[in-house]
């Protein structure tokens, strides 16, 4: 079974540019989460999708960040325009639905390292 | 606000037992998870406690006391490969829809 994949693995952009990160969750996983880790600090929750619906986006820093999950499969996280403080590693994670009883086990992707210059 | 506290670093020798504590203050509590992350890698799930008590999975055990807002991860028979960062995370929010991670504890296992 393929794990969670993320693309790109690294991205270096200049301040003011736009970047779109992609996450492909494990097939069949309804729950999809985005997280960010900045400079070795804590892993910060950004938002949570159940299928195509946003359940919680309380962690999104500001309106420069836009996440979508059209069709309830893969998800994208767009940063526009990027600022220096957006640099960090962006992780995506997925888990099974609540009915499975396994929804608490999140499978993380390898992350996208974003550097804003 | 929401906050979790963990020791920043722990050092132990191979074969020893180490306990990593986690205290939390969150809005809503549904359970406490533990994740392991090696340098440059992705966090991997270790355990989840929704109820008070001890859960054992091989060399790792996790404990939760909801009344004390406290939990710990116990690692036994330490191996060099256990050197990594360990994060506790609370499933919270109004209906358990979000996760708050602790700052992480860096465990170094010495020969």
Condensed summary:
The complex is a heterodimer of chains A (117) and B (111). Chain A has strands at 5-7, 10-13, 19-24, 31-37, 43-50, 53-56, 65-68, 75-79, 88-95, 107-108, 112-116. Chain A has 117 residues and is an all-beta fold.
Write up what this structure looks like.
Helices cover 0% and strands 48% of the residues of chain A. Chain A contains no helices and eleven strands. Chain A has strands spanning 5-7, 10-13, 19-24, 31-37, 43-50, 53-56, 65-68, 75-79, 88-95, 107-108, 112-116. Chain B is mainly beta and 111 residues long. Chain B is built from no helices and eleven strands. In chain B, the strands form two sheets. In chain B, strands 2, 4, 5, 9, 10 and 11 form a six-stranded mixed β-sheet that branches. A five-stranded antiparallel β-sheet of chain B has the order 1-3-8-7-6, with no helix packed on it. In chain B, a hairpin with a 4-residue loop joins strand 7 and strand 8. The interface between A and B is medium-sized, with 23 and 23 residues.
How is the secondary structure organized here?
The complex is a heterodimer of chains A (117) and B (111).
Chain A lengths: L4 E3 L2 E4 L5 E6 L6 E7 L5 E8 L2 E4 L8 E4 L6 E5 L8 E8 L11 E2 L3 E5 L1
Parallel strand pairs in A: 2-11
Antiparallel strand pairs in A: 1-3, 3-8, 4-5, 4-9, 5-6, 7-8, 9-10, 9-11
Chain B lengths: L2 E3 L3 E5 L4 E8 L5 E7 L6 E6 L3 E5 L2 E6 L4 E6 L8 E9 L5 E4 L3 E6 L1
Parallel strand pairs in B: 2-11
Antiparallel strand pairs in B: 1-3, 3-8, 4-5, 4-9, 6-7, 7-8, 9-10, 9-11
